[in-house]
TrEMBL record:
TM annotation in the entry: 69-89, 95-116, 209-230
Phylogenetic lineage: Eukaryota, Metazoa, Ecdysozoa, Arthropoda, Hexapoda
Claim: Repeat is one of the keywords in the record: yes
One BP annotation, GO: oligosaccharide biosynthetic process
Protein name per UniProt: Mannose-P-dolichol utilization defect 1 protein homolog
UniProt keyword terms in alphabetical order: Membrane, Repeat, Transmembrane, Transmembrane helix, Transport
Subcellular location: Membrane
Keyword GTP-binding attached: no
Topology of this chain in the membrane: Multi-pass membrane protein
Domain of life from the UniProt record: Eukaryota
Protein family (similarity comment): Belongs to the MPDU1 (TC 2.A.43.3) family.
GO cellular component terms, semicolon-separated: membrane
């Protein structure tokens, strides 16, 4: 049992930190604390990513509609997530530093397929599923050189910003966030902010740090829109309820008024 416990702890920290904590009982080592915190955050983000876009998927299924969701934004987001996942996997970074992208890629691909399906393009939805599966195999199956993945990762920042901000523009144009899920938006924001710290601590890769910083900014814009349009829609509903009685009174037909009877003159 002790060996299993040690193996688990060595997954969370290196041998030096294990000795500091469990042999020398030095619990105030700053470097070890940051490393342990980063690993714990990474695993927590991965656990959360398993369900992060499920509220969005269930909302589309419940309404049988993807109204207000920009397909262009979803596809760009999916491309950026997939490139990031492949780049991290081929580089051999710890799974705790990028594992959430695997679950995000799967869920984003499902959303893209649903947008096509509910948009009336059943054939395109099927073709997209097959095509995306082939792309993932090419990128992560050893068929793509690391240099190409590095170049693609460099384009991730503008692609990610374009994808997220195009969704923000769609929200602005529609005056609402449509079928976007508030839970998903806020979980994505929290995850991208935490990933800045874990990327600094576990990989030190500048490209990953910049990518997550840009993602945090774009997710913040959409989260703020979610709050703004949430309040705006509540105000609109209150105005409609207040205006309903007045509108009903105004709509009453004028014919209901009885004409005054003419008085007969007597000689």
């Amino acid at each position: 049992m002790v060996d299993y416990g040690k193996q688990f702890m060595l997954y969370l920290m290196d041998e030096k930190c294990y000795d500091n904590y469990f042999v020398e009982f030095d619990l105030l080592d700053g470097d070890c604390f940051r490393a342990l915190l980063s690993k714990g955050l990474g695993l927590g983000i991965i656990a959360g990513s398993v369900l992060v876009k499920v509220p969005q998927i269930t909302k589309i299924l419940a309404n049988k509609s993807a109204r207000g969701i920009s397909l262009f934004s979803v596809l760009l987001d999916l491309f950026a997530i997939t490139i990031h996942m492949a780049y991290s996997f081929v580089n051999g970074f710890p799974f705790s530093a990028w594992g959430d992208t695997a679950f995000l890629a799967l869920q984003t691909a499902i959303i893209a397929m649903m947008v096509l399906f509910y948009g009336g393009s059943t054939v395109l939805a099927g073709a997209f599923t097959v095509g995306y599966s082939a792309l993932v195999y090419v990128l992560m199956g050893g068929l793509t050189p690391l240099n190409y993945l590095l170049i693609a990762q460099g384009f991730n920042v503008p692609i990610l910003l374009l994808g997220k901000l195009s969704q923000a523009f769609t929200n602005y144009r529609n005056g609402s966030t449509g079928q976007l899920s508030a839970v998903t938006c806020f979980m994505l924001l929290a995850g991208s902010l935490a990933r800045i710290f874990t990327s600094i601590q576990e990989t030190g890769d500048q490209m990953m740090i910049i990518t997550y910083g840009s993602s945090s900014f774009a997710n913040l814009v959409i989260a703020l829109q979610m709050l703004y349009y949430w309040n705006a829609s509540d105000k609109q509903q209150k105005k409609k309820k207040a205006a309903a009685p007045a509108a009903a009174a105004a709509a009453a037909p004028a014919a209901t008024k009885k004409p005054k009877a003419k008085s007969k003159k007597t000689d």
